[in-house]
Amino acid sequence: MKKQLQSLKRIGFTVGMTAALAASSLAQAEDKLKVGLMLPATGTFAALGTAITNGFKQYVAESGGKLGGREIEYFVVDDESDPAKATENANKLVKRDHVDVLVGTVHSGVALAMAKVAKESNTLFIVPNAGADELTGPLCSPNIFRTSFTNWQPGYAMGQVAAAKKAKNVVTLTWKYAAGLQSVDGFKEAFEKAGGKVVKEMTLPFPNVEFQAYLTEIASIKPDAVYVFFAGAGATKFVKDYVAAGLNKTIPLYAPGFLTDGTLEAMGDAGQGLLTTLHYADGIKNAKNDAFRLNYAKTYKSQPDVYAVQGYDAAQLLAAGLKAVNGDFSKRAEMVKAMEAAKIDSPRGAFTLSKAHNPVQDFYLRKSEGRDNKVLEISAKALADPARGCKM
Ligand code: BEZ
């Protein structure tokens, strides 16, 4: 009898605990999900930050304001694309605001600092642009996902294109920080494998735009082509200076598509006819892209670019995880599994993630015409970053 009573008590305790846990999960699932957007709102990458925010919010709005049944509450920090302020800025979101998810950023150096904060606090971190190879390389982690690219990917794609166009000697020029340096590494790897030679690698500090001395040196070297990594306002200034120096008449300019995405209007005539490689182009024909572009133009009264697509897909990836757990963010392992297995129906074309959590995706060779980056061909099909150093 005593034994029976004890086991009845034990059953009562277990049922009570299960009910309490279910109630707390339910309560959590009914709370708003806190999303920390850490992006540039000022500086040379400001427009890129705005496009990512717009894209993210567009997907949430298209989903009725909820992801996986959870309403979204935004917490926003302007990171100024300044790595020196990055740890403090990320901690504002993680330690002060207690966000569930950290979404950001554009600048590779800032994203590397965010990854450290995310790892230490085990915060889910989704990168909607920064290409730092390390994030899905040596720093890869179950809580770090990316919906954009590695710096290596579009550089590698353009290295193949430059070789196919029979360039032999190429000069490179970029800002001296992870994105530019790794972009050049990717270009060089493909280009030299195909028999080309990078004869000079030039750099200037980020975000300097005093290009004249470099253009003078390029004119004296007379390479077959120039490969550059620039983006945002700095890209506009560079292309205008390149054309003003007359270099475009004799030395083709090659670059990852960040050079011409979101910048063609500001470049005017100088931006016409440029060849770039990227995982998105304005004229991609698929139903998702048509609907995405129409809704974006209606909502924001402007045309979307690759950054808007990456922001949109960051929200899609988060939704895939949340749906799998009915919005119960405490079921992190299940969420991560669903995100790893997700096939994202992106405006760029559907993509999946590599084991290191980076998109495996097609790269397009594009040509700028008017305000569009038009597709010429798929230059690298389902290109996966090698994820060197990732042990996951
Ligand atoms: C980067 O810092 O990773 C980056 C910035 C702008 C465009 C593309 C990459």
CATH topology of the largest domain: Rossmann fold
How much helicity do the residues have?
40-55%
Percent of residues in beta strands: 15-25%
| Net shape | globular
| Pattern of helices and strands | HEHEEHEHEEHEHEHEHEHEHHHEEE
Query: Judging by the overall fold, what is the CATH architecture of the largest domain?
Result: 3-Layer(aba) Sandwich
Bound molecules: benzoic acid
The number of strands is 14
Topology (SSEs and partners):
Blueprint (H helix, E strand, L loop, with lengths): L1 H29 L2 E7 L6 H17 L3 E2 L2 E9 L7 H11 L4 E3 L4 H14 L2 E4 L16 E3 L5 H13 L4 E7 L2 H16 L3 E8 L7 H10 L3 E5 L2 H13 L8 E4 L7 H4 L7 E4 L8 H14 L5 H19 L7 H10 L10 E2 L5 E11 L2 E12 L9
Parallel strand pairs: 1-3, 1-4, 4-5, 5-6, 7-8, 7-9, 9-10, 10-11
Antiparallel strand pairs: 2-3, 11-13, 12-13, 13-14
Helix pairs in contact: 2-11, 3-4, 5-6, 11-12
Benzoic acid binds next to loops.
How would you briefly describe this protein structure?
The chain has 392 residues and is α/β, with parallel strands linked by helices. The chain contains twelve helices and 14 strands.
